[in-house]
Design brief:
Elements (H helix, E strand, L loop, with lengths): L13 E9 L3 E8 L5 E3 L5 H4 L12 H19 L3 E5 L5 H8 L3 E5 L21 E5 L8 H9 L5 E5 L22 E2 L2 H11 L2 E5 L2 E5 L4 H10 L2 H11 L5 H16 L1
Helix pairs in contact: 2-3, 2-6, 2-7, 3-8
């Protein structure tokens, strides 16, 4: 079994669909899984080069607005599920982590390709098991999603909240392929997300561009999370959140100051 003949998520056989020029220099083949219906590149040998200069592609002009939307989504879900300890996987420069800590969530950030400029001092969690694991625009970067997802679900959180554009048989002109950056290498279908939920025994909600996996959720939780993640609802919540107090800002300032004095 090789990564170029079998799906790197479910192990199903794959069929060649098309080729793309990646990073302006590599002719890369894209394949569709016959089982989970996901799209994937051939084994991504160019990834280290893709991250060599910046963790964030220059084409990702939506990064700032995405952080604001993700702040609202995380805050709403955390309040719905009554959870506090959050782990942001692939959190980049740590801006979302900082915003979540500002509003009182105990968030820590992990990213092997970036430095947490906005969340310095909050990369080593003070909890063993996170209540909520988040990963926004991260899943499509995983070269070996089967192994990478195993690591995330092994944390055994109450819930996991992700965002990634789902593959629905788009052609090679699909903007989300982002061959110029070379960082997007796996594109999940809704069928794939259902397989993931079943494999790890989580319930799943897809709403407003988000995929939420929740352990042992009730129908009320599913309905409420579906509603809270909708785009129009998030827009309203974004306005409301602008008026919320931010106790974490000064609490963390005091904590970090004390830490520096002890050092």
């Amino acid at each position: 079994m090789t990564n170029d003949t079998h799906c790197r998520l479910c192990g199903g056989s794959v069929q060649f669909l098309f080729s793309q020029n990646v990073l302006g220099k590599y002719d890369v083949s894209y394949h569709r899984c016959t089982v989970c219906h996901s799209l994937q590149t051939e084994s991504p040998y160019w990834l280290e080069e893709a991250y060599l200069t910046h963790h964030l592609s220059c084409l990702d002009t939506g990064a700032a607005q995405r952080n604001l939307n993700n702040l609202v989504a995380c805050y709403a879900i955390s309040r719905l599920l009554k959870v506090t300890n959050v782990l942001d996987i692939g959190g980049g420069d740590g801006l979302l982590c900082r915003l979540l800590r500002d509003v009182g969530l105990n968030c820590y950030v992990k990213d092997k390709y970036a430095q947490p400029t906005y969340a310095q001092g909050f990369t080593d969690p003070n909890f063993d098991t996170p209540d909520l694991v988040i990963g926004f625009e991260v899943l499509e970067h995983y070269p070996e999603p089967m192994a990478d997802l195993d690591q995330l679900f092994a944390l055994k959180p109450r819930a996991l909240l992700f965002s990634t554009a789902l593959y629905t048989n788009q052609t090679q002109t699909w903007w989300y392929l982002s061959p110029q950056s070379g960082q997007h290498v796996f594109f999940y279908s809704q069928q794939a997300m259902s397989i993931i939920a079943s494999q790890y025994h989580y319930d799943m909600v897809i709403s407003g561009g988000y995929i939420l996996f929740v352990k042992n959720s009730s129908w009320v939780t599913k309905m409420a999370s579906t509603f809270l993640l909708k785009g129009k609802v998030r827009t309203l919540l974004k306005v409301i959140m602008a008026f919320l107090p931010v106790p974490g800002t000064w609490q963390d300032h005091a904590y970090l100051l004390a830490q520096s004095q002890q050092g």
